[in-house]
């Protein structure tokens, strides 16, 4: 990025685990909650504390976000808790990239890239949506401090350029 | 622009977040079927000007396949329903009938 845009974009390092299984199963729910210390989120939402997050990705898929370097130990704990269950635990820390977009105009910058309605009314804090960002798939969620974007690591450079372009200082919008 | 509500995650998905899967409720023809039945299964599709039942996948979202009933002429969407259903459910048929003044 040659000059700073109207929002700040930073790439975050984090441990990320894809957890798939039957969300109605007590054992599965308990394992997911124990892996993060967080309550299972409602559909299309994400919950977090300072260090960890638990997101609802699909009717049979959750995302666990843990501090960088804690992916392997969390996977081991989940596999232990889910032994004998029909479930899948995958450490996707290196397969995904995560960006945080903050500052006034963060929603506007992302609204240029996705068909999702990012107005605060339609996309309140805690909402998680998997959608399209430019030409690639991604997930995004709203926090008090801004928005977090998740995409495949293979398109992380594209995403970084896309975000830099959308937040160009000459292209600021005030919509929301 | 077409918007469909995914019956699995409940989100209103934009057309560009979806992948089209063509005509719904095809009956698969097996190895014992006649050549003409197998040809029809593989290649022959309805192309109505009006009510159409289709398969769609929430490709950029939760990833699930689902069904949609819509009008190809007006782009009106009558509703969406789960992929496990072998035929359109009664509420969808009723919605179509109500809008068309036809009996379902
Ligand atoms: Zn969906």
TrEMBL record, chain A:
Recorded superkingdom: Bacteria
SUPFAM superfamilies assigned to the protein according to its UniProt record, in alphabetical order: Folate-binding domain (SSF103025)
InterPro entries per the UniProt record, alphabetical: SoxG, TrmE/GcvT-like
The protein's name in its UniProt record: Sarcosine oxidase subunit gamma
Organism of derivation: Rhodovulum imhoffii
UniProtKB/TrEMBL annotation, chain B:
Entry-linked Pfam families: SoxD
Superkingdom per UniProt: Bacteria
Cross-referenced Gene3D superfamilies: Folate-binding superfamily
GO MF entry, a single one: sarcosine oxidase activity
GO biological process: tetrahydrofolate metabolic process
InterPro entries: SoxD, SoxD_sf
Protein name per its UniProtKB record: Sarcosine oxidase subunit delta
